[in-house]
């Protein structure tokens, strides 16, 4: 949006008048100001764009205030009155419905009084609010104009940078709000139709089989996926400057224009084209096409679609699926390093996501082909045999296919030299969790359709040898599906396939089975369950084809799913553990939660898809380089009993010191080759360390490389055989006092008349760290008997050598007895009973699983009850963080929270000994290689006990000296002046800085090193 200096002063004056609900202003004046705002606000509008004059009639004597394109704007003097707002919405509903009926286009309604702006979408006969904006009194208008542009969609030739994609189309944009609300309504109204139900079920079945129970099977995710795929498929057309406004929506979503142009595999009938099979769907697709046509898609230089995906799909959902997309600059540089002979190397990304690595591999191949003087026709013909991708996520596959043609570019695709193109990006599970047993049966590819009750009636069965020629197989399956869906075919009639058999040279031995498949496809069409099977069969078959030895590739490259064992569902954990044990990757149950899917993924895809002598390059979590639980992976011997393989690791890049972090966890890149049996070579201890700060908004290696320092260094690989500490068995994690909203409280004023003895008024204490759905719930408020409001030591209450005042929680502890709503003692305390039963009701309405009651959640693994009765002298240390932080607790009232580990002490001297060890820089340095790794080393957790910290012995001179020095530093920190209301992270930093100035600092640090080295 561009506002000239000549209009900026006028715009400021308009905004000032709009923000002032002056009682004297008339609606006519307000209408004129809104109209002038639209003309002067840089929205790419002129007088001719306001095609309906002010107060134009709809057709039944009603008049629209302003109409811009497909938006109706209704203006009222003041909408603060509930009655006025209700009447205005009713009036606007009539306008929007009339214009929608007259034009058969989806209209948006906007209602405003100049201050509050509301955007509505028509759902059936009612308007539903999709978005709103409130104009502040002091503003330059940028946010309002951006909001209006999202509604009106008036800008043209928008450059699709990552910033513009997120701003204009991302989940926070008004465009997204309007589209999502409309699509949700279409789905809700039509989800019981057979074709919609079929595609929804197949989508769910595919993702559940690949992702297990961490796949959240809900309608909202299916709607989000539909919106993303429909968006990408429209973009695919716009890349070639196809005039989508003139195409029937079904033609767009089924890729008919691409098929006519002999560009296959870009847009297919899939799970998400149900939209054009329901009433109102065509209008929805036309509106999306109109919005997307505003962008200049023809000259994209990077993978822009991942920006859209990451904006729309929540971080929690992506984390559950292990999805972390790679920056373009890193993918580009990895491609340059690994693909050194692009014209003679076949490349596969087995977890291609939105296609970042594919984009750069395609560009690298085409550059090399041009430099070698190959004709464009020959280059494009060979390209699709040299760069391919697989992903198990149907949305990612669609995005990657569009990214593939973005990489080829409009000019090449429109060239007369171009021949047939089949985009080789396939839907499939690269890990093959079920080890192919579900798809291959006695030499046949088997696809179960879920229909029929006779043997084989519910299966499409193809001889496995037909997969040898992938193009021929694809053509055959597509033709069978098209013939079955031909509207000229009479219901229940199965046409002859003699012509098909001749054209595809189907041998007589296979004809009977192909005919059976065709009969089943015809029956599926007759049952209203069509348009999907060609897509389903071709995509599930392709990973099978690539595993054949003669089809394996020269290069595997990409970013595998990062999914920690602790985030896997039980069923997946069991399979993961078994497959990891077979390949020597499992490092024992003690470190199970730290193990990650990415290692098994690399071992499995190398085994299945990489030829002997081929090379790989993968982005991995940084602990792969040096943590003990990755020792088996680094050894390079993957001993699957049925097909053991060896790899030779050739190097690594350590990226953990780059800032800002581009993944939620620290990262690295590992390189290697598949080698002959017995030739395995472990990962070199030498790595290339990268340091630097990545500039914002950059996407190419050329823009990034000047900001990075690269140096050769040795990794500090941790020894698996550490002795460990006998203290491990004595320490216990604190209680999970969550959800916070149900337990943690702040005391409130008792009121003018008081509450009587022993009772307090409390309200939930809230935190920015609360998770969904608890953070959206209102606070609990009430009166509770004071004995049940207990002090709680959270992690943030502990500094090195010092304990801050505890926080408070309502806990149903009667002496040493933990009560719940069913316990007969609870009603002895009526105030607690009311609080607890309300908390139980909130818990049962919002918990993810009914496995635990609220009492069981509070005492999960007995971490609360094991603290009772409370010892009078305890030692605590913080679970999280990258620095040791510990203190002595000398009260017998405070409950310890899960962010702390605790143990009772045999003496105060033992506590001072442990404090001296925990709070020294030496311990942090020794512990860092053992810690879990996120963006940086973090979470001391139980890793501390891998160090050989001996039990305290008062008679041991070294132990006694450490205790004396710990006592001196404890007294030093106790006298340190501090504002205890400040953030605990800042307070810990201040204490660590003060300890460095202690006269005992150097001696203490040296003693700890001598004790533990």
Can you put this structure into words, describing what you see?
This protein is α+β, with helices and mostly antiparallel strands and 1013 residues long. It contains 34 helices and 38 strands. Helix 30 crosses helix 32. The chain is globular. Mean pLDDT is 85; it is low at 52-56 and 451-457.
Brief description of this entry?
By secondary structure, the chain is an alpha+beta fold. 39% of the residues lie in helices and 17% in strands. The longest helix has 22 residues, at 82-103.
What features would you highlight for this structure?
single chain; 1013 residues; alpha+beta; ten-stranded mixed sheet; six-stranded mixed sheet; 34 helices
What order do the helices and strands come in, and which of them pair?
Blueprint: H1 5-18, H2 27-40, E1 56-57, E2 63-64, E3 66-68, E4 71-75, H3 82-103, E5 108-112, E6 116-123, E7 126-134, H4 142-152, H5 162-169, H6 174-190, H7 194-211, H8 219-239, H9 249-253, H10 256-260, E8 263-264, H11 281-292, H12 305-312, H13 315-320, H14 328-338, E9 347-349, H15 356-371, H16 376-386, E10 387-391, H17 394-408, H18 410-413, E11 421-422, E12 425-427, E13 440-441, E14 444-448, E15 459-463, H19 470-485, H20 498-504, H21 508-526, H22 533-547, E16 553-558, H23 570-582, H24 597-609, E17 610-621, H25 631-635, E18 637-638, E19 645-659, E20 667-675, E21 686-693, H26 701-704, E22 708-714, E23 732-733, H27 740-743, E24 744-747, E25 759-764, E26 781-785, E27 789-793, E28 798-799, E29 802-803, E30 807-810, E31 813-814, E32 817-818, H28 830-846, H29 854-858, E33 874-878, E34 886-889, E35 895-896, E36 900-904, H30 908-918, H31 921-927, E37 932-933, E38 937-938, H32 957-974, H33 984-996, H34 1001-1012
Parallel strand pairs: 4-5, 8-11, 9-10, 9-16, 10-12, 16-17, 19-21, 27-35
Antiparallel strand pairs: 1-2, 3-4, 5-6, 6-7, 13-14, 14-15, 17-20, 18-19, 19-20, 21-22, 23-36, 24-25, 24-30, 25-26, 27-30, 28-29, 31-32, 33-34, 33-36, 37-38
Helix pairs in contact: 1-2, 5-12, 6-8, 6-11, 8-11, 8-17, 14-15, 15-16, 15-17, 19-21, 19-22, 30-32, 31-34, 32-34
